[in-house]
Amino acid sequence: MPLPPPAAAPAPLLYPDLSDLLARVRFQPEEGRIWLDDQRMLLMHSSAFGVLRRELIESLGTDRARGLLTRIGYNSGSHDAELSRKLRDAGGADAAVFGGPQLHMLEGTARVEPVRMEIDEERGHFDGEFIWHGSAEAEEHIRQYGIGREPACWQQIGYAAGFISRFMGRPVLFREVECRAQGAPHCRIVGKPVEAWGDASGDLAFLRADALTAGLATAAATPVGSAAQDLLGDADVVGASAGFNAACHMVRRVADTQATVLFLGESGVGKEVLARSLHRVSKRAAGPFVAINCAAIPENLIESELFGVERGAFTGAATARPGRFERADGGTLFLDEIGILSWTAQGKLLRALQEREIERVGGTRTHKVDVRLVAATNLDLREEVRARRFREDLFFRLNVFPITVPPLRQRREDIPIFMNHFLRKFNQRNGRSATGFTAQAIDAMLSYSWPGNIRELENIVERGMILAPEGGAIDVVHLFSGGEQLGSGSLMLDRAGSLRARADHDDAGPAAESASVAEAVTGQSIETVQARMIEHAVAQAGGNLSAAARALGLTRPQLAYRLKQLRRRDG
Q1: 19-197: what fold?
Q2: Domain ranges of the chain
Q3: Which residues pair with 128 in a beta bridge?
Q4: How confident is residue 306, by pLDDT bands cut at 50, 70 and 90?
Q5: CATH topology of domain 243-405
Q6: What's the pLDDT score for residue 199?
Q7: Cα dihedral sign, 297-299-301-306
Q8: Strand, helix or coil for residue 301
Q9: What percent of the chain has pLDDT over 70?
Q10: Which residue of 128, 142, 459, 511 sits 20 to 30 Å from the alpha carbon of 421, by its own alpha carbon?
Q11: What is the per-residue pLDDT across 417-476, written as a single tens digit (0 to 9) for each?
């Protein structure tokens, strides 16, 4: 009996053309700048990176150095994902995802060989395997330390995780299963969503600054149950962005002291959750955590709420009642929205902090209290002091250790993690089975300005889960149906000629100004915008139509035709 023919080998994965990415690289030697689209870049000697890496390991220890480099890579990968999605949105998911390895190669990190890749954004499924040939990070590790037992491409692993997580709209982790630094012929990585690994807590710890134990990183010491548990423990706060990790570092530095802490930031950024985490990692963790929102208490009741009331102090005070200071004795008192307290209440609060004792309303004796005060506000207290709405002496008493929590629009790397967490949370709470987010929904979530920050994101994901078809993916129409203004009312044209929300870029460079993507439009016709884009691109290219066409993502004949139409219209 003849043997069956051997199974055909799977077709090799082929990269799309690289010219769209190459066209985004711009050197300005006279200005001392290099740009990749609107991101400023640096050329760095590989040996200098090796020295930096060794200094980090020797000064911080292996684990902390690995975490720092992993987070640096995550940030870089997240920004590159935004560029790839922007350039290749019309080419399908595979083309956009392949932008990551291609940018990795363009940036001189390694030659990346794709082995396999499965991607389904709407189901949140990703399974990829890649080989790194000639990894710069592995080579520098070997040069400094020789062959060892552990994989060493920490920054590159972070890059892969940041790129795919931002692209997928959910946390995806990569592991280096072979490494040149271990003596393997090349480096091999495998990437899957967090929950698909089953034991991702150790990997996730490297994405959190200082590995805040017991509060922000309880998952590092507990079995993995879900992506939300892995990332959040029991608190809705997490992130891999530089701004978030800087705040976490400050929390960790002050946690074991008795210093007063003042959290600053917009409404909804997670100040109270960070305050609770501060309490959990402090020496007062065994004591109570008592929170009060000053904005929610009527002015005539704020004194009794803070300091308590004696029986008969006023009509209706039938029994004596301790206030929040007494209830927080031995623990932490959190005063949210402290900036709105009345002048009188501010004076009484100042006295309580200075004397460490309080007197109940209607009482005649003082009560000693051992309380650590943590406050939060979304107001500029220095400006409030100048306007004589806030006491200067109280401000200085509170401003011992200020911690600024950045708004969500400045920590976009964290958005996919929150999207995944809230989707799982609301699916479980409501017995629903929304599978994930469409590519258009992910783009919209990442480009939206989030004026309500994390609180708004949570509400919008819950809305999307309700409106999405059972067992289906959440789309843009399910999310932004409550009057939200995508891109703060500013639109742009993508390469396919479609209007879409313009992402916020705080530091747009010349590549953005060159109309490589589009110019912002408000109140202008599409024809006017197209004309401006074409004229600007041709001017930037010095009249070279081929270069201008590449900048606009068009062929030269397409650009020549559009120029002809414009001249005919204007003539």
Answers
A1: Muramoyl-pentapeptide Carboxypeptidase; domain 2 (3.30.1380)
A2: 19-197, 243-405, 409-484, 489-570
A3: 117, 191
A4: confident
A5: Rossmann fold (3.40.50)
A6: 82
A7: positive
A8: helix
A9: 80
A10: 128
A11: 889 889 989 999 999 888 889 888 888 888 888 999 999 999 999 999 999 888 888 988
**Predicted structure pTM score:** 0.67
Q: What is the 3-state secondary structure (H, E, C) of 304-347?
A: HHHHCECCCCCCCCCCCECCHHHHCCCCEEEEECHHHCCHHHHH
* Cα torsion angle, 322, 323, 325, 330, sign: positive
Whole-number Cα distances in Å, 201 to 243, 261, 455, 550: 22, 29, 25, 44
Architecture of domain 489-570: Orthogonal Bundle (1.10)
Amino acid at site 470:
E
Q: Which amino acid is present at 366? A: T
Find out whether 170 and 238 touch, Cβ atoms under 8 Å.
no
Give the separation between CA 541 and CA 547, rounded to whole angstroms: 6
Find the length of the chain: 571
Residue with more model confidence, 542 or 399: 399
| Residue 105: closest CA among 126, 130, 88 | 130
Q: Which two tokens stand for residue 86?
A: 């922007």
Q: For residue 427, what is the enclosing H or E element?
A: helix 415-430
- Whether the per-residue pLDDT at 230 is higher than 80: the answer is no
